Amino acid sequence: DANIAAGNGDKIAIYWEGNELGVDATLTYNQLLEKVCQLANYLKGIGVRKGDAVVIYLPMLMELPIAMLACARIGAVHSVVFAGFSSESLSQRIMDCKPKVVLTCNAVKRGPKVIHLKDIVDAALSDCAKNGTVVDVCLTYGNESALKKESTKWVDGRDIWWQDILPKYPTSCDVEWVDAEDPLFLLYTSGSTGKPKGVLHTTGGYMVYTATTFKYAFDYKPSDVYWCTADCGWITGHSYVTYGPLLNGASTVVFEGAPNYPDSGRCWDIVDKYKVSIFYTAPTLVRSLMREGDELVTRYSRKSLRVLGSVGEPINPSAWRWFFNVIGDSRCPISDTWWQTE
């Protein structure tokens, strides 16, 4: 709303790059607000109220940040579960936060592989029901490039097609004003010490922090195109795919696919395509691309790059040097950041 009020309604909020080459889409801030409001109105229509939990089990479609923002708009608490997690991991999180609704999609292609997300959700919900936690609604986005609607397993009365129902809702929705200390989202730690623990982030402090760190850690300018390669299932994706960039009115890249598909030059193909100026990724990815050799990098221009960022574990010296010398042509500073879900 603030970005539109400032006259940036027609600016691109999200550049979406699909798994397959040549499959892409964009949303301006005006279009993003409309989609967020439609989903927010739908959620209110099925009884989601301020403080209620909503579990989001979606891949990197534009619907994932839309779902997060729709929850925030009505004061609901989103819990994004990384769409690579098992049905057991998903059911643990559902049983812990007892959501009114689960948002998912029927399937996704990651590289050449089709992942049947709806089957995983079905298994998780059936497991939850056996343990006394029943979820009444499963809103499912039909991702037809991965799986046709008619091939999707369906539970009548519980499952609803996203594209069938959402267009019926109004494109404006009043904001549910919340206190600075009211919850914004739950994100579960991976559960390496047994049961996953839900970390709760509140609205005010989190928003101020992500907006500020985005602006200063990356030297953000309004002309930048920003790409954080993290999935929204992790804290980095929450902070620097969705909230940080959008609070600053930035244009952010959301990538559905894998960095090594169709080959390991895909990241630099995307950088050139969208003229990405700030590129933020993990040392793990830097090391895996480093093993593939320089040629897959140097065949692309990368002239648009201005700032590089590293996130996850602290970066090791050889990966730092390769990132700086090869990816950034020894001219882009590296903002080396790391933190935890907490």
Structure overview:
Pathway: Phytoalexin biosynthesis; 3,4',5-trihydroxystilbene biosynthesis; 3,4',5-trihydroxystilbene from trans-4-coumarate: step 1/2. This is acetate--CoA ligase. Keywords: Phenylpropanoid metabolism. The protein is α/β, with parallel strands linked by helices and 342 residues long. The protein has two domains: 1-202, 3-Layer(aba) Sandwich (Rossmann fold), CATH 3.40.50.12780; 206-337, Rossmann fold (3-Layer(aba) Sandwich). It has helices spanning 2-8, 29-45, 63-74, 87-97, 117-130, 162-165, 203-217, 235-247, 266-274, 283-291, 295-298, 317-327, and strands at 12-17, 24-28, 53-57, 77-80, 101-105, 108-110, 113-115, 137-141, 159-161, 183-188, 198-202, 225-228, 251-255, 278-281, 307-310, 334-336. Helix 2 packs across helix 3 and helix 4 (87-97) crosses helix 5 (117-130). The chain is globular, with a radius of gyration of 20 Å.
Please outline the helices and strands.
Elements: H1 2-8, E1 12-17, E2 24-28, H2 29-45, E3 53-57, H3 63-74, E4 77-80, H4 87-97, E5 101-105, E6 108-110, E7 113-115, H5 117-130, E8 137-141, E9 159-161, H6 162-165, E10 183-188, E11 198-202, H7 203-217, E12 225-228, H8 235-247, E13 251-255, H9 266-274, E14 278-281, H10 283-291, H11 295-298, E15 307-310, H12 317-327, E16 334-336
Parallel strand pairs: 1-13, 3-4, 3-5, 4-10, 5-8, 8-9, 12-13, 12-14, 14-15, 15-16
Antiparallel strand pairs: 1-2, 6-7, 10-11
